[in-house]
Amino acid sequence: MQNRFLFLVTIILLFTAGCTNDDLVLKGKDLQFSSQKWRLVQMTGSFVNSTTVGEAMDWQEYYIFNPDGSFIKSRERDGAVLEATGTFEVVEYDNDDADYLELLFETGGELAGGCYGFGRETLQYVTEDRLQSSWMACDGPGLFYEIQKD
User: Fold this and answer.
1) Residues 40, 64 contacting (CB under 8 angstroms)
2) pLDDT category of residue 33 using cuts at 50, 70 and 90
């Protein structure tokens, strides 16, 4: 009887351990950053069929995230290049299984795209090599970035 009980408990533990949430993008990943470049690859608007990619986007931009928790954001629009700098951290929210990057701008706060106002921005990991700006949640454009593996 005791062997059956142990067997049943073992099966239950194995089953529940195998039922983890696959939506947790970075769980178990090594979050030690090397310098990473993330380039804007897609913009969406609030209208149907308003997705643009590549040179058709309103602007071109990228982030460089450094191992020391600093970042650079660069945006080129109509031939003018603007840069911003600041710090970031990987965060999780209690009510959400997703992983996020919270950015705090030290310079160039006007480049922050988001719902928090001047100088703060949040990016969500969609996959381990794709980020999405939270700006869309407050009527901004949908901005999608991919890591550059050059």
Assistant:
1) no
2) low
**Top-ranked range on mean pLDDT: pick from 18-22, 24-28, 126-130:** 126-130
Can you say whether the dihedral through the CA atoms of 94, 122, 55, 57 is positive or negative? positive
DSSP lists the bridge partners of residue 80 as 77
Residue 15: what are its φ and ψ, rounded to 5°?
Answer: -65, -45
Q: Tell me the average pLDDT of the chain.
A: 81
| Token couple for 114 | 């988001």
| 29-32-35-36 Cα dihedral, nearest 10 degrees | 20
Sign of the CA dihedral with 70 first, then 76, 77, and 81 last: positive
Nearest to 61 by CA among 103, 116, 117: 103
Q: Two tokens at 9?
A: 């408990």
Rg (CA), the chain: 20
Within the chain, what is the greatest distance between any pair of CA atoms? 77
